[in-house]
Amino acid sequence: MRSALNQLLDLQYQLGDLEEHLHPAVLFGSRDVVLVDCGYPGSLEILERELLHHGISPASLTKLVLTHQDDDHMGAAAELKEAWPAIEILTSEAEQPYITGERKNLRLQQAEEMQARLPREQRALGLRFCQRLRQVRPVAVDGVLRPGDVFDWGGGCEILSTPGHTPGHLSIRALDGDFLITGDAAVVENGALAVANPQFCLDLPAAERSLERLARYGCRRYLCYHGGPLDNGAKT
Questions:
Q1: How many Å apart are CA 114 and CA 13, to the nearest integer?
Q2: CA distance 224 to 227
Q3: Across residues 16-29, what is the average pLDDT?
Q4: CA–CA separation, 56 vs 74, rounded Å?
Q5: Which pTM was predicted?
Q6: If phi over 0 gives left and psi between -120 and 50 gives alpha, with beta otherwise, what is residue 78?
């Protein structure tokens, strides 16, 4: 789904018997081509192929916005920075130290704490998940995004603070209500917006409040990283 202002990508992964789809967005501004989130570590080739499929030169990207610290959203950031050094990496102030490696990733902390409570038959899977998170490469952040910051990306948009899934999670809303990029503040389930993996939210009440706020905007399209686009602002 592309207009002159935005493009939703479809990154496909085969994880064992499971096929997973992630949906980074590209926003176009007068001087910027902005990628919002970038997939798992090792996604550079997939990203390049998907961008070119939509007629977007990977070298044209000027900014990478990271909604939060989870590995499926920021895992390929270090690769992108190496491939296209001029790209500026932006995130919220609260997420920055976890993305740069100054502080231990909160999802890894959560996974390690849960490990001892897992049933015996799930512990090997839990250990593999922890190891996967430990292997994510940190990356320098070039700039901080704050709630209310306004840009001309996508025809005009603002940064929203949508905490809960992680403390500094951010989303992006078109000023004219055309779209809302949710990150993991909302996913599409059964044709409606829902909290993403509520059992893993670091602050579930905050995540529920963020979801309610996003739904109240009544945007024409909700661009969800998991589940893809939801048209007509379907309510939760």
A1: 26
A2: 6
A3: 94
A4: 20
A5: 0.94
A6: alpha
